[in-house]
Amino acid sequence: MATDADTDAETGTVDAYDELTDRLERLTAVQGASGVLSWDQQVTMPEGGTPARSKQLSVLSSVSHEMLTDDRTAELLDACEGSDLTGQEEAVVRETRREYERAAAVPGELVEEISSTSSEALGAWEEARENDDFETFAPYLEDLVELKREYAEQIDPDRDPYAVLFEDYEPCLPLSQAEEILDTLKETLVPMIDEIRESDADVTTDAFEGTFDADEQEALSRDVLTDLGYDWEHGRLDVSSHPFTSGNQFDCRVTTRFDESDPLGALMSTVHEFGHAFYNLGLPREQFGTPLGESRDLSVHESQSRLWENQVGRSAAFWEHVLPTVREQFPDVDASAEEAYESANQVYEDNLIRVEADELTYHLHIVIRFEIERALIAGDLDVADVPEAWNDKYEEYLGLRPDTDSEGCLQDIHWSHGNFGYFPTYSLGSVLATQLYDAADDDIDDLEGDVRNGEFGALHDWLRENVHRHGARYETNELVERATGEPFGADHFVEYVREKYGDLYDLDESV
Amino acid sequence: MATDADTDAETGTVDAYDELTDRLERLTAVQGASGVLSWDQQVTMPEGGTPARSKQLSVLSSVSHEMLTDDRTAELLDACEGSDLTGQEEAVVRETRREYERAAAVPGELVEEISSTSSEALGAWEEARENDDFETFAPYLEDLVELKREYAEQIDPDRDPYAVLFEDYEPCLPLSQAEEILDTLKETLVPMIDEIRESDADVTTDAFEGTFDADEQEALSRDVLTDLGYDWEHGRLDVSSHPFTSGNQFDCRVTTRFDESDPLGALMSTVHEFGHAFYNLGLPREQFGTPLGESRDLSVHESQSRLWENQVGRSAAFWEHVLPTVREQFPDVDASAEEAYESANQVYEDNLIRVEADELTYHLHIVIRFEIERALIAGDLDVADVPEAWNDKYEEYLGLRPDTDSEGCLQDIHWSHGNFGYFPTYSLGSVLATQLYDAADDDIDDLEGDVRNGEFGALHDWLRENVHRHGARYETNELVERATGEPFGADHFVEYVREKYGDLYDLDESV
After folding, report:
1. Domain count of chain B?
2. What is the DSSP secondary structure assignment for residue B255, as one 8-state letter?
3. Which of A250, A280, A290 to mutate to test the interface with B (most CBs of B within 10 A)?
4. Could you give the ipTM of this predicted complex?
């Protein structure tokens, strides 16, 4: 991976910085290529293509790992750190240093072992879930817990290994802060959901009953994406088995899936993915290839999807706006905007599945996973005891006990990838979404009116200005404080759910 | 690009050979990734994605160039060449040596200059063709001719530079042999086309008149692909502005395009691309990543597409078979199989465009390009004189003189890419197709009957056995001799066109 530049980084900071950004641009290009290959694998690749694709992805991953961990990267970082840099340049060096240190700390063999164990674990997990047989998956989960502990130890043997793992997904937000937010969610939501279950409020739940043709749902998703401001010159919508967003500021694509009995599922997931894509498409184009042109990490990314899904897409104002669009495809929908709004916000009584959860119970699903994976990594819980721990917590926090592990601890794919520390970012993103939206609401003259009128320009501008254009220039807390004037915390979320669900379910204000 | 293997290639041939194939597998993976990115760019990428995609493609290209030309490749080749190898291993080393030498001979700056000049030339060519203004394109063509001469000189200063350039597309077939075949085509076809123009034979030309809906044409293309034996588990059909095939033995995709006034265009192009894809899908899967799992070069590849397009797809037997399938989508087609066959084989009186040419005039389009590009590279023709030379040759060989350069020397994209030496492979492939098909016909009990019955299994097997399974194990001439028992030459083609077009146009047997 030699370049043509001067190989003596000492000769000048400007040279070193330029060579570093060249290297980063190459690295981004290789990672971007992997992204396209993954998108293709999930959306367009014929099934039989797997062997070649697996090889291509694993080689690209090792090429980018070599580019990042090459000694030359360290030399360039050293040269840059000892010199005068602008604030933007400092941010590039800071982000690269962090990524370099992590990547260089972990031996290649361990990375490969995690990767090959995950591949096998994925198959075992699929089989286990299919057959409702946790035993099939357990040995792989044990291996992954062990391997990920070792991985964390390679990075920093002196810290809580779970905190180290968490940084793979959220590198610049202290775990203690995340934990405090999750604790607040639990304390707020467990009693609130209890009270909702006892509420006599007459909340409409059946505004969307019947059969909803997939092609018409797709047309609706396209209409809504256009309406929200999705830039089709730089994006596309496809179908995949799990909705996701993939791409950069030039080409960022969303996917969804259609269930003919549940049009809200695809609609809300499309709005969610729009938020992810709108973030990526708002990253500065002229900074493509360095951290200044890349998104902040997973909590911030999820805040963008959740803001559009929940603060916009599940608001009463949005339903007044969108219902006529829904009726263009589905003229038989005769619910009022208020009824549609209530249906889109109903709190489910007996849902055990995270991805089908409402805005409130969702976070208890996350808290349960967080508590279990923390205990697993800490060695306080054996893999064999996961199903019972899972079921006990569901009973304790949600008043529900899964009958099977398939609808219990086998429901999510994440642990089969060895992704311990990922789940919390889902809740953190939702919480941050409320804080950002309140700040936008303060700055924008009549945001609710805008949403009611389908005028999203001011909100677009606010997000571009306060979040997107910065790329990864600021660490999470600084980004949040600059955008909202406050530290990142759960207050806005608590206020939001109390007000919204207090109204919907006639709750006592003291809850 | 260090690997974990022993860095002293002297330690053992087995080690060196294994390390070499590891390296080749990585190289193939990176090149395959580029292929997926190109496919995506032409088929699915939103227009605005270009800047990121260009960067990704150029970085992958430099990564694969570095992998190939790394000193370690040379060390491993040296170690392998001095040792006992099996025939297959020898072929891997031979192919890699050739690629290595070419890639290592050309300085990176020259490769980049050619690449950036081509990018600009492409834009200039598009503009020139649009405005029928050769002057816009001329300076870029001059630069490309100059750069490609320099490129050839870097590879071998002692040989005809055109012969060196030709090897980029057809590395193991002497140019003299190619030239002999092209001369035979010219000598055979110029008088034959003359006689056809004077023939009174009543050949049907209008079996497919009217408007043919694009969606129904697509359904027909899918039906025909299925019918020919395309393996949808490992492939897909999409639309792109120029039809192409892309992929490997696990995932090989075809594209086509639809013209609502010309259903034959898409149908024949689909059959053509099927031939390319069927070749790639027949390469040995267990050899994926080395030359043994890669196709022989462009003439052989084109022989596979042309065999299906011309020998199968333009035969009377095939039209008896396929017409009912056509009628399923287009019940208004009331031509007989014989009339459809004649329409699909009519020799156009006034077509100036290569990609719309029939099976005979096609080769004169190629011969003209071959003669002009040879003269350009030799310095015997100035770029400024290309339009007149082009028009004169069209008049001499085809009796037609283009009115504009847009339908003359600006019609093809190839020169704007600097691809001098590519065109001949189109004719060579068509010629080889006839020789291979005759050999298959000798070996198969009733090939014509099989085609009439839509039974392609014996032909599949013959091509798999005699061509596909060998990958690049044999050089072109050896592959052809092994498959057909004869040296590669134009005799079968001459016999084929004399018989077929003699019948169609009642030609004198002496022609």
Report:
1. 2
2. E
3. A250
4. 0.94
